[in-house]
User: Fold this.
Amino acid sequence: MNTFRVLLVKFIMTFIMAIVAFSFFNVNPAGLVLLVALIATIGNYLVGDLYVLPAMGNVIASIGDGILGAVLAFIVSLITVSFNVSFASLFIFAVLIAAGEYFFHPYLSRTKNVAPEQQAPEQQQDEHSEHGEHHE
Assistant:
């Protein structure tokens, strides 16, 4: 349940940022702005939160999330005729996402039972020891 709640918070944050970037700077249909927010949320969670954040830290993951969000929005604009972006709107979206993710990542780290759960190396070692596995 915590994973759903975390993803919902992330989606709402991303949707608000997409509205600012793609509805105020470029007039786009609300449904496509919603689609971009959904795609950016999923992409940033799968790439940024699960892989980049644990490996490289909050600042790099936040910048990467901003860039990935803008790239995904640009790809949507290439695929759909009615979703229009400009360099300015993509840049604003990237900056907003990076800033939002910078503050979202500590919340993500504090939230327990978010799938897939990350375990510290000593916890993994303890589990191996409990199951009779010894590394010497």
Observations:
- DSSP finds five helices and no strands in the chain.
- Residues 104 and 110 are 10 Å apart (CA to CA).
